């Protein structure tokens, strides 16, 4: 898998990366997550599973790995794996995120799985926690799910602290979610500290069902801001685990290209000219290997237009996502 630049950040990534949202905690809202984990939530077993998926990703050439403070033990698993394998820090790019605190207590069912707060004290606390687990592989830190409502893009103390971290050589990014992704991206592009654009990259949801952030991501890419695509499989809605008959059109396009749903959906995201890296959220080696076949899909560039009828309004897409069950 060939390396490419993550915008103008100076970091190198591969077209497919691995996100650890589903690997680091017992509960997640991907369809079939409980099946992926075989309902075995013993910490040692989950660490071993995470290491196996990480090993398979590394062997396949994946060199970008994405975690967050709120992904349970994801940073612990990722950092432990990196240190045990003794990889050269220059050979891998690791991104993590701050802004949510994990609150599920290692349970699948919880009143709240994570609590969001974008205040300075949260940043300062979580930065130390991330650095302890991930140094010397810690080279990208992102605001987790920045929104206009959270006010983080107008919080000067937080922005100034991020700028100080950037001056120390850590790339600064943000992830976005919700029906107003495009607005947040454009607002982030305008954030300057001492005449320097603060954000080196943006991570956004883009998939065959939710394409609304595409134009703003193109603008970010044109400005030299790296683009990371998350949820390209729509939390499992674009896999065989979704029995919705509306996906018949997707199956026809897959048949034409001899591809599975997941490989095609990832391939279409990877084919977007503004996408630097697309995340696989695989929680098993088998699903990672299936995702990796995205690189073999022919004519992925034209598939999105052939499947335009699948696109949902942002409001409808995010309302559906909010109803997905943690499992």
TrEMBL record:
Xref: Pfam families: Aldo_ket_red (PF00248)
Ranges for domain NADP-dependent oxidoreductase: 44-297
Listed InterPro entries: AKR2_Oxidoreductase, NAD(P)_OxRdtase_dom_sf, NADP_OxRdtase_dom
Full protein name: Aldo/keto reductase
Annotated source species: Candidatus Chloroploca asiatica
């Amino acid at each position: 898998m060939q390396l490419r630049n993550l915008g103008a950040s100076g970091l190198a990534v591969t077209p497919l990366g691995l996100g650890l949202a589903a690997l680091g905690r017992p509960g997640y809202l991907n369809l079939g997550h409980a099946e992926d984990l075989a309902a075995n939530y013993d910490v040692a077993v989950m660490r071993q599973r995470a290491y196996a998926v990480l090993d398979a990703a590394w062997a396949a050439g994946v060199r970008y790995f994405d975690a967050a403070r709120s992904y349970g033990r994801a940073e612990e698993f990722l950092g432990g794996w990196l240190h045990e394998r003794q990889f050269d820090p220059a050979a891998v790019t690791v991104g993590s995120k701050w802004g949510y605190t994990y609150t599920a207590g290692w349970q699948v069912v919880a009143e709240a799985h994570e609590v969001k707060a974008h205040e300075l004290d949260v940043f300062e606390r979580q930065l130390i926690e991330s650095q302890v687990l991930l140094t010397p592989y810690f080279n990208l830190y992102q605001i987790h799910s920045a929104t206009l409502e959270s006010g983080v893009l107008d919080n000067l103390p937080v922005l100034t602290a991020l700028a100080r971290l950037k001056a120390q050589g850590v790339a600064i990014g943000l992830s976005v979610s919700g029906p107003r992704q495009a607005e947040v991206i454009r607002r982030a592009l305008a954030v300057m500290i001492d005449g320097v654009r603060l954000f080196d990259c943006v991570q956004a949801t883009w998939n065959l069902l939710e394409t609304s952030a595409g134009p703003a991501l193109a603008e970010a890419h044109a400005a030299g801001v790296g683009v990371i695509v998350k949820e390209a499989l729509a939390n499992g809605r674009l896999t065989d685990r979704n029995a919705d008959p509306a996906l018949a059109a997707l199956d026809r396009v897959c048949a034409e290209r001899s591809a599975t749903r997941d490989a095609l959906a990832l391939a279409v995201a990877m084919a977007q000219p503004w996408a630097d890296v697309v995340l696989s959220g695989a929680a098993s080696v088998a699903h990672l290997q299936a995702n990796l076949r995205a690189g073999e899909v022919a004519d992925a560039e034209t598939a999105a237009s052939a499947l335009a009828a699948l696109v949902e309004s942002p409001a409808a897409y995010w309302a559906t996502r909010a109803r997905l069950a943690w499992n």
